[in-house]
């Protein structure tokens, strides 16, 4: 089975490619290298020892997408990661986000709807829930008005897929709503490569610990949580990658009940920012230099997953915990 992974040289995409190859899938990667480097390709090949077809294509060019599917007419599975994903940047550059995250999705679906049958896995995010009314968050929690254009592109993206699947019965799709992916592959050949200043907590922690950054700013400790800092569900990227293989397999086997399904992918456990810091200090043996500053615009107080649906229907469970993930992130920073 030949699978296209768009954004396959990115943080999550590269880990999914490795898991797909380990499961015997033939993989083709498209990436425009806007947020990755070609070294990641070497890293994946070093892990699996299997050759990989990579094409540097910007999916915003519709003619290139059409041409790609003409040349790879035997692809009938797509896992779509290629998108811009920095929440703050999306507020500054909304049109870049709407064009890059939505036009590319539309062009891919336009090609897939031409096929006899097609399987599509969409990289979505718990950001669609905003601040959920109750925790842990289930897939039936209301979708709230997005706090950023980035979050809005995930909500609109899911609606585009739903509306398309309603009228294209041969298209089967699953959206995976990730909580907070962190960590790196045990081989330390691939991991999170934030270009520039990291926006996310864990890469900022590891870069501070290794001395690339002088101090971590903790964005607020006056939230209504146990220790005043925000709570998130931090999931090891390898567990997240395995969920993609399970979801794709579900579609290939025709086990899906509807032709568009949604699953929350998290550990089901919430950890505060200070808990993450203290756990990192424990696993790394490094004292972290941080200071409490003001809140960050758009942060929700607490978000962690109810994983019952993925556990029972996808037969998927997170196997790794926060310590495993933070230790792997630290080893990756030290590679
Ligand atoms: C986590 C917590 C911050 C940095 C976002 C997107 C989500 C996904 C993951 C793409 C928050 C605090 C952070 C720092 C801090 N993105 N923090 N100091 O915001 O939960 O999720 O990234 O797929 O869709 O919404 O992740 O790691 O940015 O923040 O105190 O330097 O860490 O305030 O409470 P977030 P994050």
Automatic annotation (TrEMBL):
<keyword id="KW-0119">Carbohydrate metabolism</keyword>
<protein>
    <recommendedName>
        <fullName>UDP-glucose 4-epimerase</fullName>
        <ecNumber>5.1.3.2</ecNumber>
    </recommendedName>
</protein>
<dbReference type="GO" id="GO:0005829">
    <property type="term" value="C:cytosol"/>
</dbReference>
<keyword id="KW-0520">NAD</keyword>
<feature type="domain" description="NAD-dependent epimerase/dehydratase">
    <location>
        <begin position="3"/>
        <end position="266"/>
    </location>
</feature>
<comment type="pathway">
    <text>Carbohydrate metabolism; galactose metabolism.</text>
</comment>
<dbReference type="InterPro" id="IPR036291">
    <property type="entry name" value="NAD(P)-bd_dom_sf"/>
</dbReference>
<comment type="similarity">
    <text>Belongs to the NAD(P)-dependent epimerase/dehydratase family.</text>
</comment>
<dbReference type="Pfam" id="PF01370">
    <property type="entry name" value="Epimerase"/>
</dbReference>
<keyword id="KW-0413">Isomerase</keyword>
<dbReference type="GO" id="GO:0003978">
    <property type="term" value="F:UDP-glucose 4-epimerase activity"/>
</dbReference>
<comment type="subunit">
    <text>Homodimer.</text>
</comment>
<dbReference type="InterPro" id="IPR005886">
    <property type="entry name" value="UDP_G4E"/>
</dbReference>
<dbReference type="GO" id="GO:0006012">
    <property type="term" value="P:galactose metabolic process"/>
</dbReference>
<keyword id="KW-0299">Galactose metabolism</keyword>
<dbReference type="InterPro" id="IPR001509">
    <property type="entry name" value="Epimerase_deHydtase"/>
</dbReference>
């Amino acid at each position: 089975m030949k699978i296209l992974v768009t954004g396959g040289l990115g943080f999550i995409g590269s880990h999914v490619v490795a898991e797909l190859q380990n499961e015997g899938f033939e993989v083709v990667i498209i990436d425009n290298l806007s947020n990755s480097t070609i070294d990641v390709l070497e890293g994946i090949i070093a892990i699996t020892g299997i050759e990989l077809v990579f094409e540097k294509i910007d999916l915003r060019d519709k003619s290139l997408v059409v041409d790609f599917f003409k040349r790879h007419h035997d692809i009938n599975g797509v896992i779509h990661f290629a998108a811009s994903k920095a929440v703050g940047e999306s507020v500054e550059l909304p049109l870049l986000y709407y064009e890059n995250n939505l036009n590319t999705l539309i062009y891919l679906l336009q090609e897939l709807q031409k096929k006899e049958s097609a399987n599509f896995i969409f990289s979505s995010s718990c950001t669609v829930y905003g601040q959920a009314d109750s925790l842990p968050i289930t897939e039936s929690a209301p979708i709230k008005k997005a706090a950023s254009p980035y979050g809005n592109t995930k909500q609109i993206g899911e609606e585009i897929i739903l509306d398309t699947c309603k009228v294209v019965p041969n298209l089967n799709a699953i959206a995976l709503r990730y909580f907070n992916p962190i960590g790196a592959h045990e081989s330390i050949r691939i991991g999170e490569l934030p270009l520039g200043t990291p926006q996310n907590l864990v890469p900022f922690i590891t870069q501070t610990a290794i001395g690339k950054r002088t101090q971590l700013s903790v964005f607020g400790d006056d939230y209504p949580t146990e220790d005043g800092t925000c709570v998130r569900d931090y999931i090891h990227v390898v567990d997240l990658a395995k969920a993609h293989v399970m979801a794709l397999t579900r579609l290939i086997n025709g086990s899906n009940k509807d032709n568009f399904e949604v699953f929350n992918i998290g550990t089901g456990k919430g950890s505060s920012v200070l808990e993450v810091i203290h756990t990192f200090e424990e696993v790394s043996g490094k004292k972290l230099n941080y200071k409490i500053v003001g809140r960050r615009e758009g942060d929700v107080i607490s978000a962690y997953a109810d994983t019952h649906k993925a556990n029972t229907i996808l037969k998927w469970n997170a196997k790794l915990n926060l310590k495993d993930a933070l230790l792997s992130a630290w080893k990756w920073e030290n590679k």
